[in-house]
Design goal:
170 residues, 7 helices, 7 strands
């Protein structure tokens, strides 16, 4: 089975919040876009919360970044036979360099995880290697925007994201 590789972060130097997924899905990798699966609620949620009207990926990404939001994944690369987080072979997983990212983005005031897998890998594999200042950054788990997370509908996910992001951005 071959390794899959994630994307560089979508971030401006003045980013205030970092939203982390685990690893891009097959659809995202094929399109070279974060959250490209048409049923993933990520972009509809962010566009609604931040009043973004752009429909093209490059424009949406830019407008989200202009609002202080950075997007990345916890994993740099791994072996994952499918698209689900549960399919990630954690023995093969390599994380991104978050200490360098935080050093380059000193205004990051909050890290939000798009689902439980991103959070658990970060806490287990990234957090122990961060300096005190990085460890002190507030962390929150968002309900996964994935269509596989069907226990919440779109409006419920959006309400939870609004509440959490509002708390981090204040």
């Amino acid at each position: 089975m071959s390794r899959i590789h994630g994307f560089p972060p979508l971030a401006r130097p003045d980013a205030k919040i970092l939203i982390l997924g685990s690893m891009p899905s097959r659809e995202s990798l094929a399109r070279q876009q974060y959250y490209a699966h048409p049923r993933n609620a990520f972009w509809p949620i962010l566009c609604s919360l931040f009043s973004i009207t752009a429909t093209q990926y490059s424009e949406r990404s830019q407008q989200v970044a202009e609002r202080g939001v950075a997007i990345w994944d916890v994993l740099r690369d791994c072996v994952r036979p499918g698209s689900l987080d549960a399919d990630i072979d954690e023995k093969t997983a390599a994380t991104n360099d978050f200490q360098a990212f935080i050093n380059e983005h000193p205004q990051i005031a909050g890290i939000c995880f798009n689902g439980a897998k991103a959070e658990s890998i970060f806490v287990k594999r990234v957090l122990p290697g961060l300096d005190e200042q990085a460890v002190a950054i507030s962390r929150e788990r968002l309900p996964s925007s994935s269509p596989a997370h069907a226990s919440m509908n779109f409006e419920q996910k959006k309400a939870a994201w609004r509440s959490i992001l509002k708390g981090v951005l204040e």
